[in-house]
Amino acid sequence: MSNRLKLTDILVTIVISIGFGILYKIWGPLYYAVKPFGINIDQLIYGMWFMAATVAFLIIRKPGVALLAEVAASSGEFLMGSEFGLEVLLYGIIQGLFAELLLMAFKYKRYDLLAVSMAGISSCIGSLILDFYKGYIGDLSTWNLVLYMTFRFIGTILFTGVLANSIVKALEATGVTNLVRTTSQKDFDSLDQ
Amino acid sequence: MECITSVNKLKLKFPEEEGLLFNDLTISIRKGEKVLLLGPSGCGKSTLLQVLSGLIPQSIDIPIKSESIQIPDSWGFIFQDPDSQFCMPYVDEEIAFVLENLRIPKKEMTGRIKELLATVGLFLEDIHTEIRTLSGGMKQRLALATVLALDPEVIFLDEPTALIDEEGTAQVWDTVKAISKDKTIIIVEHKIDQIMDVIDRVIVFTHDGKIMADGNSTYVFSNFKEELKRFGIWYPNAWEEYKKEKVQNTFTEPSDHMLRLQNFRGYRKKENAITLEKAAVHSGEWIVVTGANGAGKSTLLLSMMQLLKTSGDYRMDGRPIKKFADLQRKAYFVFQNPEYQFLTNSVIEEITYELRQRNEVSNAEFVKKANDLLTIFGLKDKQKQHPYHLSLGQKRRLSVATAFIQNPQLLLLDEPTFGQDSKNTFKLLELLQEECQKGTIIIMVTHDLNIIDHFATRVWEVKNGKVISDWKKDEIKTGSEGNVYEYIF
Amino acid sequence: MNISFEESWLHKVNPALKLFTLTFLFVFAVTIHHLNYMITFTLTVSILFFFCTGQPYKHLLLFLLPFLLVFFSTAVSMILFGKGETTLFKWGLVNVTEESLYRGLHLGFRALVFAMMGITFVLTTKPVQLFYSLMQQLKLHPKYAYSFMAAIRLIPIMFEELQTIRDARKVRGIQSQKGLSGVLKSIKSLPIPLLSQSIRRAFRIAVAMEAKRFNSSNARTFYYHIGFSIYDLLFIVYFVLTISLAYFFALEFPLFPVTDVRH
Ligand SMILES: Nc1ncnc2c1ncn2[C@@H]1O[C@H](COP(=O)(O)OP(=O)(O)OP(=O)(O)O)[C@@H](O)[C@H]1O
Ligand SMILES: Nc1ncnc2c1ncn2[C@@H]1O[C@H](COP(=O)(O)OP(=O)(O)OP(=O)(O)O)[C@@H](O)[C@H]1O
Ligand SMILES: [Mg+2]
Ligand SMILES: [Mg+2]
Fold first, then answer.
1. Same structural domain for residues C162 and C60?
2. Ligand 2 binding pocket, CB closer than 6 Å
3. I want to staple B387 with a disulfide (CB 3.0 to 4.6 A). Which of A95, A98, A185, B342 is the partner?
4. Amino acid B109: pLDDT
């Protein structure tokens, strides 16, 4: 059983992620449309942008998938002509890296709600760091900043944890995940019946 | 002669399945042989092809065991689905992808690409043509060109012509014949009529993955004919014998309901994609729609089902049909690609899906019907399986079977018999015939001339997005002159 | 996107170099805290966007619409809720100060410039060329490059698939419900079949690629040779020149009386 990424893993990850990239692209205008309402409700839907990493990881369960997925999704979004332009690539790399690091801390052994929610939160922290430099969010009034971060964290858990987990559960029911997961020793042994 | 690919005592089982698909199967293929693997649908032919090429377990992770296995050094594989075997958007880039893998220098590439395209008879104005603009037949020929680029010792072909028109099928096999001289060719195919002169060895499997017969084609087809017939496997002249035994389907009396179409047009992306000038169809008619790949047959059926935008006068029993809702419960459609149709996670859920939608699962009569259909189509012991994990022929049968649960007045079927063995083809057609005689209007796309001959009462020919002819089998003339059609425009 | 257009000189710039330069400019733009310079910098990029992508103006204006939305929405939230001393306007939680106004404008221009750089790149680069260039200039592993190209080929197929899934559901008797709950229901039921179809398709393509001897070796030749040309020099010189000019104009003829928008 090898943990290296095979061509099938890579291609599947990238296809899923490009799909998310398209979704991210649609998410952009939506995000900007709710933004002027103030009080930062836009941050509630920000978590969507961390989702590719956790969904792909839950499906393929191998090291490197989360990072690859987030980079591929942001490239997809970028190539679709995103309103954020090059910014998405940078955010994608950082968010993917942060998610990957957290999953690594779990030794890639946990595929549950907690692990992916934490991975999402990790991505979220990555994105906030970038926001401090790029978006001057440190210059928001304090109450506004607190709201901003709280909303983003809540949204993150909803999207990368709860939603991603339920999507992959539904996918598992369709049997498609068996394609990319290694067969167990049990299956192998059952050949000697 | 030396052996080029073989496997000794192969055991193979799909994860989460009960029994073994292969139990101690031994097979060996010698260099230069042209082999046809024949067997009932679902017996494991496609799977075996993947084992012999090494795709299982190298690329597809399925547990296997064997005492010894020999995989050819160089081989090419033509898959059944033309759309899922290309990775680049343009024709030249796709072939170049293979040449790059083989490290052919760039300056030789364009020449090689042109040469390969000429070998398979794919003549394009510009080699930089988008793959998605090609028809099914052209796509399979491109696939053949990419395989030839590998200059393989062995070529594996898994039903490469299942979705291709007569002309395209002939082209593909002619090409195979032309290139096969010193190559080993292993073919899985149900439509065997056109390949009899390509092959020199036939291996027949039973439904449980054992070898029933193995030898040259004359030997197999003359000594095992009874078995082939009993197991429902195609053999030359199967259709002729069937036609002799069964009476031809004829159009009886026009009765209660009918369709009327006038100046009917279907649109794809605002462009007129199909035109039907005028037609009246009565209940009990069985119309076969034919035409080359890409002519617009599927488009016609989609339009008649109101899944595309349409214009013109379209009436069913006098009531105008303007949108999909006007046809709900009255018409049913079977898609060309069976996978499109699957909505649930098991065969049994799939077949009872409509019943559950209408809260009629408790209706014993319907449940019995669903069970009967599964038995008829040999899917009874696959009930719990996921529809996507069926063999190609099984998928097709399941998607067609769902049509029989309801009693639609109009049944539209897009190539319902592709990839079937003879038993299932005939059963399926007979069921359709029953429906037809109960008064259902059947409109179906097929490339199979035998179906036109024996079952259809009427033929529509589609060419370049237009229904160009409408022939009716004339009841009066058939008696004396055989199958004569009357032109009714 | 399948819009007909003319190829401009920007199309001939080496894709990897183009990406690299724009990434550099992206980082550069983040370090600009001077509102006037931000504005003149935006101008240099917009010249490329408007005159050098080879797209008809109708399309460019269409692309511009969402960018303006980005501009306003980014600017507005900082303007209304940013910190600052010199209050211009106050109403409840809303506190518009001179500092937050300028900072908001600055952010708006920054977002606009990112967007225009991105779209200029996308409009003048073919994905296949980009990935060949990345393989040749930046030694991107072919496994990733070809997976990307295959995935991009699948995008239109995925959209068609979405339509087919909807059709199939209709045929199988799922009445499309009207109103919000109907829309929500269909949003819920479409992604799973679409995702599982895409995964299956991706898997099949990967198997087909391996069947074509991909992966057997890392060394390979290339059908497209992506090299460097005079246009690459032109591209770099353009930015060196215009950015210097922009800096000069920003200092000499300031539009707004601020230098650093940070707090
Ligand atoms: N992934 C899978 N999981 C479980 N069972 C499978 C899977 N793929 C195939 N099968 C089963 O294995 C059997 C052999 O399938 P295979 O595709 O090899 O049949 P085939 O002989 O090629 O049939 P056809 O002529 O219909 O194409 C079938 O009964 C099928 O239901
Ligand atoms: N989803 C689509 N979008 C746009 N054009 C399409 C689409 N599907 C098919 N076409 C085009 O419409 C024309 C008719 O296609 P259609 O699928 O109806 O042909 P067909 O007669 O069913 O062919 P086949 O025998 O290969 O199934 C073709 O030129 C095809 O390229
Ligand atoms: Mg098969
Ligand atoms: Mg068709």
1. no
2. B 135-136, 165, 268, 273, 291, 293-299, 336; C 160
3. B342
4. 93
